[in-house]
Structure formats: C-alpha cells, structure tokens
Design brief:
The complex is a heterodimer of chains A (83) and B (250).
Chain A (H helix, E strand, L loop, with lengths): L5 H6 L4 H44 L24
Chain B lengths: L1 H8 L1 H33 L13 H28 L2 H33 L7 H21 L4 H15 L2 H11 L19 H34 L3 H8 L7
The chains are: A mainly alpha (83), B mainly alpha (250).
Chain lengths: 83, 250
C-alpha cells in the first residue's frame, strides 16, 4: 500500500485533480462505450424481432393485425376512458 | 486453410463463433482492468520525481497503445475487405473507429492533464503530441467518410482507403520520440532491453495494457455482431435466429 489512509489516497499527494480527472474521463468513456454497445445490441434484436412478428402476422393472413391497421385514438376522439 | 478463410467470409459463422469467444475477453478485460486499477492506484509506489501524478500512466499508456493498435487493425481490416471482399472485415473496421477515436482522446486528455504538473504545460507542438492529434482527426475522418456516402460499398471502400493511407501516421507516432526528441519521453515498453521503470510500477502497467486489449477485442466482437444484425437483418438465418429456436438469445 502506497498510502497510509484513505484521505491520503484521495489527496494523491497534492496531485488529486490531475490523477482523478484523467482516471475519471477514462472510466467514463469506457463505461459509456460498454453501455452504448449493450443498448445498440438490444435495440437491434428488438427491432428484428418486431419485424419478424409483423411479417409472420402478414404471411399467416392477419392472425395478428398488421401494424398499419392498428387503430389509434386521438385525444379528442370518440373513446374517452380517461375523463 | 481455404475452408477456414471461406468460413471467415460468412457473417453467420462469425456470429456463432464470436458468441463463444466473447465471454472470455469480457471476463479477462474486467479482471485485468480491476486488478491493474487497484494495483496502479493504491499499491504501486509513488515516483520519486513526479510523486503520485505518475499514476496517470496506468490509463495514459494503455489508451495510447489501443489508439494506435486499433488504427492498424482498422487498416488491416480495410485491406482484407478491399482484397477479398470479406464483409465481416468491413463491419469490424466500422465498429473499431469510434473506440479508436475515444482511446485517442483519452490518451490526449490524460497526457494533457499529466503535463500540467510534470512539464508545466498541458500542450506543446511536440512531435508525438501533434501526431496523436492527427490520429484523432484521422479517426474522425474515417467515421465522417462512412457517413458521407449513400452507397454502403462506396463508404466502405473510401473508409478502407483512408485507413490504409492514414496508417503511415502510426510509425511516425512510434518513432517521433526518437526522431525529434523534444518534450515527450521515449518508450516505456521496449521489445528488447529492460523496462524503463521498476518492476512494481511496470507489472500493473502491463496488466492494464493487457486489460485494455482484452476490452478492445471483447467490444469489437460484440459490436461486430450488432453490425451483422444491422446489415444482414433481412437474411434468412438472422430471421430464424431472432424468431426462435437457436442458441443465441440475449
């Protein structure tokens, strides 16, 4: 151990701003990269799954309604359940 | 040998094999980086001249190594794509560029921060510093070039050519400290000869470097898989994969 206390470790012998900013930026970028890769993978897989489901529904003759036939209810529409 | 190369051409094969390889590199990366961090930050002795600011070396050097290695990998992938038309190589090159740019930025930033207490300046137009800045611009250029074409093949070829031409910058970075010895210190690691620092400082650095390389491999495998999904999403095997049975679910 190069330091005798945790406070001393944080102080880095007076070089705290330099050491911690360099390490902080590195850690942040690496974690952000991993997070981005995970989000990217999940989104792509979900997108492909959604499209496969849609295509499947279309090919089986609409056992499941295709997306373009979905009904949307506008705020001032006829079906107001929230009022 | 040819059978192996032909397999390499197939994104499907790559998708399967990378799924098996990926976990090892993630575990290695996490373990090595964690060990190197604890060792480098808390246990390695302070430098007798630089005090504790020298601990920046444990992020600076691995990042600088990756910054250069990733560019070389990108150029090689570009060459492989241009010569053999192996699509997976181009996909790998695509996903390498942002990580390379990030690592170049880390190397530049940590170097600048380190320079303040050590050299008394955060920047100088020193040969190595300038060459690293050019490397960052080359990465950004490769990324921008890919986005500038509507045809994927044109984009891939343009990016490959820029990577192959730009790789000339790598030996310039490497030898800059010997050719124009101005500010930056010479290499810490040498293939021949002994390390330029005591063992208890050098070992954690080696661990960090290996950890960063594992991280690069793990992330490249993972993101190349995503890139395969992005580009080959309409192919039959991908659709079979996402709709059901096979082994890959994540």
């Amino acid at each position: 151990m190069a330091f005798s206390s945790f406070a001393e470790f944080l102080a880095m012998g007076g070089h705290a701003p330099y050491v911690w900013s360099a390490w902080g930026v590195t850690a942040l970028l690496i974690l952000a990269t991993v997070w981005h890769a995970r989000v990217e993978q999940r989104q792509l897989l979900n997108g492909l799954k959604r499209r496969a489901r849609r295509e499947h529904a279309r090919s089986t003759g609409g056992a499941q309604a295709p997306l373009n036939a979905a009904r949307f209810t506008s705020v001032e529409g006829e079906t107001r359940n929230d009022a | 040998m040819w059978a192996f190369i032909n397999k390499l051409r197939s994104p499907k094969w790559f998708y399967a094999i990378s799924a098996k390889l990926q976990p090892f590199f993630w575990v290695a990366a996490a373990a090595l980086i964690l060990a190197g961090t604890v060792w480098g930050l808390a246990f390695a002795p302070a430098d007798y001249q630089q005090g504790n600011s020298f601990r920046i070396i444990y992020v600076h050097v691995p990042a600088a190594f990756l910054a250069q290695s990733i560019f070389v990998s990108m150029a090689i992938s570009g060459l492989v794509y241009m010569v053999w038309k192996i699509k997976v190589a181009d996909m790998a090159a695509t996903v390498m560029a942002p990580l390379g740019a990030a690592m170049t930025f880390v190397a530049l930033f940590s170097g600048a921060v380190w320079g303040v207490p050590t050299w008394g300046t955060w920047w100088m137009w020193d040969a190595r510093l300038t060459a690293m800045l050019i490397l960052l611009f080359l990465y950004l250029g490769v990324i921008a070039l890919r986005g500038a074409f509507t045809s994927r093949d044109s984009a891939s070829r343009a990016a490959s050519v820029l990577a192959m031409v730009g790789v000339i910058n790598i030996p310039i970075i490497k030898y800059s400290v010997d050719w124009w010895y101005t500010l930056h210190q010479p290499a810490t690691f040498t293939v021949t000869g002994r390390a330029a620092m005591p063992m208890e400082m050098w070992v954690p650095l080696l661990i960090m470097v290996l950890g960063f390389y594992s991280f690069f491999i793990a992330l490249t495998l993972m993101r190349t898989r995503s890139e395969i999904l992005r580009r080959e999403g309409t192919k039959r095997w991908v659709q079979d994969l996402v709709t059901g049975q096979p082994e890959e679910k994540r």
